Amino acid sequence: MRTDVPPLLHAYARPAADRSSYVDIVAGDGAEVVDAAGRRYVDALGSLWYCNVGHGRAEIADAVAEQMRTLEVFHTFDRFTNPAADAVAERLAGLAPMPDTRVFLTSGGSESVETAVKLARIAQHWAGHPERTVVVSRRPSYHGVTYAALTATGLAANQQGFGPLLPDVVQVPYDDLDALDHLGPEYEGRIAAVIAEPVVGAGGVYPPPEGYFAGLRERCDRWGAFLIVDEVICGFGRLGQWWGAQHFGVRPDLVTFAKGVTSGYLPLGGVLVGAAVREALEADEAAVFRHGYTYGGHPTVAAAALANLDLLEKEDLIARAPAIGERLGAGLGSLVDGTDVVGHRGTQGIWAIELAEGLSANAVRDALLGHGVIARPIGTSALAYCPPLVVTDEQMDRCVEGTRRAIADVRAGRSG
Ligand code: PLP
Fold first, then answer.
1. Average pLDDT, whole number, for the chain?
2. Which chain positions lie within coiled-coil regions (predicted)?
3. Domains, the chain
């Protein structure tokens, strides 16, 4: 065995030849992180689209430490509960974009999508519609990596080589309501749920066309299908309201969340369960939703979420998203020159630039590190930006200027 190859297997990467090819992040504060050599970077993607309150928040560390000393963990299966899990559920139900909501807790986004798909199918089953098993998702989209979440994900490259995916999932273009009306006779009367991100995130940063979510809602109502809004990225302020669903004025039946609920400080996800699904779950007194994750309702994780929600509220961070749109969105737009940057897209706190053919997003990302900015390639030709909501104007300007210089470096063969 080669001893210079680090044993940690990295997600979405080939094992590197040696440790020196990794960027070793050791600390962070606000919208910046620091590597082992002391170099500072603007964390332009909020780590992985989640660090909404920024790094280094003592309030969250203190809440976690206190909970650890009181009750570090106990499960919430069947008859057991704990005050932190109850409090976070209550808080989230109060914030939910639909009335009379219950909250199912998981440990991340994929588990939440998995849970929502199972909830939709079982609720249909218990409501007397066992034939409604089909889940409609969109292309492109990103919903995670477990089999239901992966099957719903509209990125063909992610699905290759993993064997048979989940049956009864059908995809339509992300912006095409008409495609939903032409799914084919084999799907008629069989739709359990439609799943959609408010703004497609890791699938490429694509906001929906005008009126799209009203169209989805109308079709779900007509078909008796549940609308699952995947808020894993857009929830907790990314679009200037608590939920993307509120930004687009739509009432979901199920909401999946993760990431921003703790700003990533500890792994938490979950599903907001609206009245229609809940009624189906409760209709049969003997029926049990046989589903749950060991760490769902983990009190220490819940304490991190509560402290994070306090910060979002007290500092009115959700109101920051439009300002990010005005500064960062406009700044990235100023890079569009038709030669190196051929487009930019996004809204509020989430943006991407599209690089010209021949410019590799990986190469620009690597060059950008040299200018003190961490952005994330999405696909081969786009770079995404989704900074902590505490990002300053000066840091956003550094993201834009750094990107301009990184592209020039790659063009000049100086880097990447
Ligand atoms: N859904 C959306 C919209 C996401 O962006 C992601 C992750 O980026 C997921 C689900 C999966 O979340 P996780 O990586 O926590 O499993």
1. 96
2. none
3. 19-53+317-411 (3.90.1150.10), 60-314 (3.40.640.10)
